[in-house]
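Continuing the series of single-chain predictions for the mutant panel. This is the parent chain; the variants come on the following pages.
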Amino acid sequence: MSTPVPSPELGAFLRAHRELLKPADVGLSATARRRTPGLRREEVASLSGVGLAWYTWLEQGRVTASRQVLGAVARALRLDAAGLRHAMRLAGYHEPVAAADDGRGGLVTAVQPVLDSWPASPAVLLDRYFDLLGWNAAWSALWGSPETVPADRRNLMWLMVADSRLRTVLHDWEPLAMNVFQHFRAQAGTALADARTGEVYRRLEEDAPQLRHWWGCHSVAELTARTVTVEPAGTGRIELSLSSFHPVDDPSALVLLFTPRAEADRARMAGLSERPLRSVASSH
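Parent structure:
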């Protein structure tokens, strides 16, 4: 059973979203000039059906909230599904997930043949922390083999911001990297309450300190489908369609699939995937 806990991180998250809203966003008229951005605390409290003092304490991380009351606050703040889910996690309401070690082996065994069935489409299996559990040959051919990355950094967040090959190959990496981080924030636990989440943040702080402002951001989002352009050396531009889905055996895990958009993209991706095989064959 998950247990609600007072959470300064929840308070900061709610405050950040309150400050983004305008009175008109929630059907209020802006009358007097406001000294602070966004809605006032009393306005959110009124829209949520709670007392001002209690809502103030909630933003200060001094009280807990039931699921129902937190849902009302989320509606008042116009949080989307990802934002509501993140708020619930910050409050201490967690969905049951497979045990880290007990469930991983079976999950990888079940999903790896699926990844391997896409020889020209890079695909990877991630756990709830975005640690890489499995990948196919096309993924290794495009981004480099995850086996060359230290285990504690074998994480999609770390690869997106700190791996030089991925950033060299990927065009316009920043929008995708930011979306990955926003989804990571919505998917993983809090850094204070969850050891692996805290470790991921520490590795990012060590290896990508120039993006420290990302780690302090409170925005969350779903990972959205999009077209990704890559240009591996000696191959030319390849356009890939990014999609994702959750394995039925563990809904907290995630499969990312990069599918070539056109036949020319598929041919280039297939040629790239065959390079290691040709190299091995020529060495015998």
